[in-house]
Structure prediction request, 230 residues.
Amino acid sequence: MPVAIITGSSKGLGRALAEALGARGWDLVLDARGADALRETAEAVARHGTRVVALPGDVTDGGHRAELVAAAWRLGGADLVVSNASALGAEPLVRLAELPLDGLRRALEVNVVAALGLVREALPLLQASPAGTVIAVTSDAAAEAYETWGGYGASKAALDQLAAVLGVEEPGLRVWAVDPGDMATDLYTAAVPDDDAPRPAPADVVPAFLRLDERPASGRYAAPSLLKAR
Prediction:
């Protein structure tokens, strides 16, 4: 069975994607900081009959990233790495003049440095896979100037660039930066607590990610566009 590593997979998009891949027969290595929520997700995904390894920890910890890749190796390799874990930099979001620099550093460490670190750790397994793939979950805040989204957007813009360069440097892989669009998630609530406008559930966005099994060229994709192309 193919094997995927998904970070930030205890809830939201990460959990929805894990459940969808599990239903398709993928074996999974799941990461999140919250051990209880991660265990609950792993139990739900394992009901599909696939193997699931849940490793709570912080993706900024190099030792934890090594554990994730080692777990994938024990399952047979790594065909897909999804960097979904994200940090906002401030909760709720604030203007750049008020953004704590330590918060910005945290966003960069989680959203950029850890994402690259995990791919580098997993690269030999990805290169050995006949369908090695990297998905970097990005945001429209990486490309648009939204008030208060500067720190988070800057980190996602850096992630976009890393994904683009990795796609050039590793032509044998597929490397996709995917913008899921607005979703009803805890992350968005933490970012903008007063915004209660209706938004799609993560499970409604996952079909866009599943369309990527058609293996388009490496690049940046928006989930709404992928859904419209169905």
